[in-house]
TrEMBL record:
Gene Ontology BP, a term: transmembrane transport
Location in the cell: Cell membrane
Annotated GO CC locations: plasma membrane
Residue ranges crossing the lipid bilayer per the database entry: 7-30, 69-90, 102-124, 136-155, 176-198, 239-260
Residue intervals of the ABC transmembrane type-1 domain: 65-255
Entry similarity comment: Belongs to the binding-protein-dependent transport system permease family.
Organism: Actinomadura montaniterrae
Keywords tagged on the record: Cell membrane, Membrane, Transmembrane, Transmembrane helix, Transport
Topological relation to the membrane, as annotated: Multi-pass membrane protein
Protein name per Swiss-Prot or TrEMBL: Carbohydrate ABC transporter permease
């Protein structure tokens, strides 16, 4: 009983530390400037106000949300399509240098993304894609090493006998992939989709570098841009952060089992 109590106390303390920053964001976003200066950060403002949220939405932030939704949808679709084809080729097709090419590609996960930002920007500049949707999407649209690794591990775990039976019936690689492998891969595809949605929504560095206009600006860059020349308006910035946070919290609560499953797929299989 003592050990169980100590375990739950530790878990509750860890959960509180994790949730407390988000609670501060919500509390600050629903306070007036006078309430913010007259109360402790963890005290709610009474009565709560939604004026900060309304002011943020009427300052162009709604357009940033639309841009982020469009970017997230495009990247998720691209990841699911191109990653699936590449992973199936690495898992099932036989060609010279397959394993060497795969592990060289996966090894790029060891390179920090900040190292490749300048070369990517120079490439986009030479292609005249700076501040365009193509420049924003290009580095991630055709798949990522993590996504290909995740799907390859899942494909390799599927029984090869199913594919052999399909080949006996005259099915080619594309037919096998579309009609046999993909219907069995819905859990892995769901996992990849959720991870892509979260990473795309939270992406900050590349959109900050490659975009400069409101037509392609996303929420993370929009929140950073709320800092004025005089200083930071805590109410406005936390209101914008709260608006950007709500969709991701909803996605996590609804699909958290897929996120946990991604660890199982890549770690055990």
């Amino acid at each position: 009983m003592v050990k169980r109590t100590a375990l739950y106390v530790t878990l509750v303390a860890g959960a509180f530390v994790s949730v407390f920053p988000y609670l501060l964001v919500a509390l600050t976003a629903l306070k007036t400037p006078r309430q913010l200066s007259g109360t402790e950060p963890w005290e709610p403002g009474l009565p709560p106000t939604f004026a900060n949220l309304d002011r943020v939405m009427h300052s162009g932030f709604a357009g940033y949300l639309g841009n982020t939704l469009l970017m997230t949808a495009a990247l998720t679709a691209g990841q699911l399509v191109f990653t699936t084809f590449a992973a199936y080729a690495f898992a099932r097709l036989r060609f010279r240098g397959r394993d060497v090419l795969f592990w060289l590609y996966v090894a790029t996960m060891m390179v920090p993304s900040a190292v490749t930002m300048i070369p990517l920007f120079l490439i986009m500049r030479e292609l005249h894609l700076v501040n365009t949707w193509w420049g924003l999407l290009a580095p991630y649209l055709l798949g990522t090493p993590y996504g290909i690794f995740l799907m390859r591990q899942f494909f390799r775990a599927l029984p090869a006998g199913l594919e052999d039976a399909a080949r006996i019936d005259g099915a080619g690689p594309l037919t096998i992939l579309l009609r046999i492998v993909l219907p069995l891969s819905r859990p892995a595809l769901g996992t990849l989709a959720i991870i892509t949605v979260i990473s795309s929504w939270n992406n900050f560095m590349w959109p900050l570098i490659i975009t400069s206009g409101d037509d392609t600006r996303v929420v993370t860059v929009g929140i950073a841009g709320l800092k004025g020349s005089i200083g930071v308006d805590p109410n406005q910035m936390t209101a914008a952060a709260l608006i950007a946070l709500v969709p991701m919290v909803a996605v996590f609560v609804a699909f958290q089992r897929y996120i946990v499953r991604s660890v199982v797929l890549t770690g055990l299989k």
